[in-house]
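Practice problem: ATP-binding protein
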Amino acid sequence: MEIELGIRNVAGAVTFNTDEPADQVGAAINQAIANHEPITLTDTKDRHIIVPADALGYAIIGSETRHAVGFGALN
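Answer key — structure tokens:
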């Protein structure tokens, strides 16, 4: 699932993929904001993304649904 984090006063967004469920990512972000703690997430390559909660401008949490790719028949 793709995650996009917009950081205040930074032109580009931080975009990465994670295997964590959407509700778990959302809960981690909400908890960090409520407690003024850094947001810590892990991407699919086991890298840790750490963002100060107070610097977060927005978060877009992608869909967990994997879309089919190909030229199969549509019914």
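Discussion: The longest strand covers residues 2-7. Students who identified this feature from the tokens alone can consider the problem solved.
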